[in-house]
Amino acid sequence: MSEIRLRLENVQRRFRTEAGELPVLTGAELTISAGEIVALVAPSGTGKSTLLHLAGLLERPDSGEVHVGGKPTVGLKDEARSALRGQAIGFVYQFHHLLPEFTALENIVLPQMAIGAAEKPAAERGRELLARFGLASREGHRPGRLSGGEQQRVAIARALANRPGLLLADEPTGNLDVATSDKVFSELLEAVRGAGVGALIATHNPDLARRMDRVVTLKDGRVVDA
Questions:
Q1: Is the distance from CB of 149 to CB of 157 less than 8 angstroms?
Q2: What global pTM score does this model have?
Q3: Is 222 helix (H, G, I), strand (E, B) or coil?
Q4: CB 32 within 8 A of CB 200
Q5: In principle, which of 22, 58, 164, 225 could form an S-S bond with 53, CB 3.0–4.6 Å?
Q6: What does the alpha-carbon distance between residue 39 and residue 201 come to, in Å, rounded to a whole number?
Q7: Nearest Cα to 209, choosing from 177, 176, 171, 179?
Q8: Cβ atoms within 10 Å, residue 214
């Protein structure tokens, strides 16, 4: 049986508004196994970002439990949650969010050093990932000298640098043209599957969603098969 990378159990989340409480998630359940890539396709305003934030330990649910790598997280203190997030979860966003003053290699090295890696092995890991994405010759370039596709490849490499068990992505190629998006997404899928990472990828693109292992959506605050 595959190792479980993410499990949401009866997760509920509501927000206070001027009109009263707004329920967003009302008992969300989701399990993602190692090597499984799940597409999250849902209209804006249905709780997609909230679900990703809860899975990524950026928010706490009002009730329910979020297991990451088999570990329950809701009761953890903030410091322990941050440490687990840095070690076990990789994030890719629509915009690359690379640090502009650092090179491509340094952008991949820094997250590793943040969780205690020594500089030399972190740089070796960074070069390995840059080569994996065809960017070996770009390691000394700052983001401003990279194309959009190259920037997003560096962002994906950064997300995988700490060998996370879980990858969360929000429209990871949504800022790229169609041809570049298709190529970068293919590279993302190959890298994630090859590393045995479980992934939850939010996308509005049905063609990209069909290339994943299964597709889920949000309906009335719950996760359902699309």
A1: no
A2: 0.90
A3: strand
A4: yes
A5: 58
A6: 5
A7: 171
A8: 12
* CA gap 57, 68 in Å, rounded: 9
Nearest to 56 by CA among 82, 37, 30: 82
Q: How many CA atoms lie within 13 A of 205 on its CB side?
A: 18
Place of tokens 């996370």: 164
Query: Which domains occur in the chain, in start order?
Result: 4-225 (3.40.50.300)
The SS3 of residue 216 is: strand
Confidence category of residue 1, pLDDT binned at 50, 70, 90: very low
Count of CA atoms in the C-beta half-sphere (13 A) of 41: 17
Residue 2: pLDDT band (50, 70, 90) is low
In the numeric block, which tokens belong to residue 196?
């045995």
Report how far residue 226's alpha carbon sits from residue 223's, in angstroms, rounded to the nearest whole number: 9
Structural contact between residues 211 and 201, judged by C-beta atoms closer than 8 angstroms: no
Letter for the amino acid at 26?
T
Q: What are phi and psi for residue 171, nearest 5 degrees?
A: 50, 60
> Which residues are CB-contacts of 99 (< 8 A; sequence separation ≥ 6)?
106, 107, 110, 143
